[in-house]
Amino acid sequence: MTLLVVGSAGQLGREMVRAASASRPVVGLSRVDLDVTDAGAVRVAIEAHRPSVVVNGSAWTDVDGCELEPERADLVNARAVGNLAEACTRVGAHLVQVSTDFVFDGTPGPDGVLAPYGEDHPTNPLNVYGASKLAGEEAAGAGATVARTTWLQPADSPGMVGRILAALEGDGPVELLGDRRACPTFIVDLVPVLLQLADERVPGVVHVVNEGVASWAEVGHLVAAEVGADLNRIVSVTETDLGPPRPARRPAYSALDNAALRRLGHPPLRHHRDAVADTVARLRG
Ligand SMILES: NC(=O)c1ccc[n+]([C@@H]2O[C@H](COP(=O)([O-])OP(=O)(O)OC[C@H]3O[C@@H](n4cnc5c(N)ncnc54)[C@H](OP(=O)(O)O)[C@@H]3O)[C@@H](O)[C@H]2O)c1
Q: What's the whole-model pTM score?
């Protein structure tokens, strides 16, 4: 019943190894141990460990970097997933592939309403990163769990909440993006759901996000309220206020709806407001 985590030094991989170790044998392989773009090495590692589940924590997550190097994005985020899928098939392991809200373009559905995207909403990535992750979803194969999530917040390091906290400790305004909205999702809440989906060998695309939709400016208000800071110090800015355009376009709206999870009978993840409060408490120690 071994669970193998590749890309285990990333923020998701680290927490996956830590949390899963409580209930089963876990092997974590970081990029140093296993380069997932090396198909032969992937086959050898998976045949050596013969895991029942492989969780892919590896990805090239530098969205602007991907825009400038599409070949590398495709290699790491798509073709490497094919390597993992093929090796998993050989040993009968279930693959959990993690994907992103950036497969969507931020526009409303056919009814003209902008609402959290369900799994069936048509994809239309605006950037190379999103396109490479969408290709990775296909490369994972029909039997794999493809868990899409958004705006991940780490379990063991400051992340965005920590950066906002640190900024609030100084004086003056704290500028945060207010023109993009999604579902801030806390890895500590995501990992148990991924483990359950893995154990149930759920096939297909499943959205997994904390409840609630927010911009970073709105998250800033939550953090400020939590520490009793003046809410007026949080200043909502737009991407264009922050400087010259970045190489990759981002969707202005990429909230996800956990529709498949509801159908599967999974309880909702807690609201991000509660996860922000817990994170502030953890970081203030
Ligand atoms: N972060 C987010 O907000 C977010 C949002 C939605 C979805 N996701 C998805 O969630 C998953 C986990 O993301 P994360 O935030 O944990 O990313 P992360 O912290 O950047 O971790 C990714 C890990 O993959 C490793 N890696 C890169 N290339 C590799 C290769 N060729 N072979 C093996 N390992 C390799 C990286 O190693 P090095 O550091 O040594 O390169 C890093 O440890 C990804 O699939 C990502 O697309 C993330």
A: 0.98
